[in-house]
Amino acid sequence: METGLRGKVVVVTGASGGIGTACARLFAREGAKLVLHGHRNLDRLHALQQELAGEILVASADLTEEAEVEHLFRKALDRFHGVDVLVANAGIWPEDDEPIHRMSLERWKRTMDTDLTSVFLCARSLFRILERTKPEEAALVIVGSTAAVFGEEGHADYAAAKAGITYGLTRTLKNEIVRIVPRGRVNAVCPGWTTTPMSAAGLENPEVVTRVLQTRAHKRVARAEDVASAIVFLSSDRLAGHITGEVLAVAGGMEGRLLHLPEEINPREA
């Protein structure tokens, strides 16, 4: 089925990572014009640019810095004269488990700036462009996490930041976008454990894989393409034109309770 994304201008933040790269490939396949954002891994983005067909702009920005975010979206506007879709994907997951009574304020602030404030800044820039260009439709897809739904022990900073963008921002901005673009939509996806460079260290441990898969119906870890497909769906006005303010979990039927015994899971086949 056609997505109707051909010729649409799509900004993907964190495009050098697993989910962001998978999004870039799927949007390119649909004929979208791409703005691929990265911060430090620009070599990977330039290689991706060479791999993909179509019009692609690679742009660097520290998304925690107001001026750099504004410059990123200005470059997109100058190149393509508008933005139709923003995939707010960039973020971090601090690898070390730190219960809150041992967590430093520095770590808390860094995670909040990277995972929450950055999405605020990007959404604000998008809305300012929409106010100026007045397209017929527009979409913002925010990448949250199942940590926003269930919490995550040892990662209170991450869970709180992701809950903020998944619920507070998504469900507020779906009401604000229609004041500018009547057919504008804002939705969130919440991936569970997904095979990406950011999660690779944890998923190399069979005990971690077993523990992760005990809480979900599908006994496999998500692939980046699984999440990217949901993002492309929600970005398409043709496929998801009456869906807004929703939170879509992409986590294999994850629940907050055990569904499988350890002996029922083979982590090597996951």
Helix content: 40-55%
State the domain count: 1
| Overall CATH class | Alpha Beta
Q: For the largest beta sheet, what order do the strands appear in spatially?
A: 3-2-1-4-5-6-9
What structural category do the secondary elements indicate?
alpha/beta
Question: What do we call the CATH homologous superfamily?
Answer: NAD(P)-binding Rossmann-like Domain
Estimate what percentage of residues fall within beta strands: 15-25%
Rg over CA atoms, rounded to whole Å, is 18 Å
Count of individual helical segments: 10
Low-confidence runs of at least 5 consecutive residues: none
Provide the CATH architecture: 3-Layer(aba) Sandwich
Describe the fold and architecture:
The chain has helices at residues 18-29, 42-51, 66-80, 105-133, 147-150, 156-176, 200-203, 206-213, 224-235, 237-240, and strands spanning 9-12, 33-38, 56-60, 85-88, 137-143, 183-191, 194-195, 222-223, 247-250. It has 270 residues and is an alpha/beta fold. It has a single domain (9-195, 223-254), classed as NAD(P)-binding Rossmann-like Domain (Rossmann fold, 3-Layer(aba) Sandwich). The strands form two sheets. Strands 3-2-1-4-5-6-9 form a seven-stranded parallel β-sheet, sandwiched between helices. A two-stranded parallel ribbon has the order 7-8. Strand 2, helix 2 and strand 3 form a beta-alpha-beta unit. The radius of gyration is 18 Å and the shape is globular. The mean pLDDT is 93.
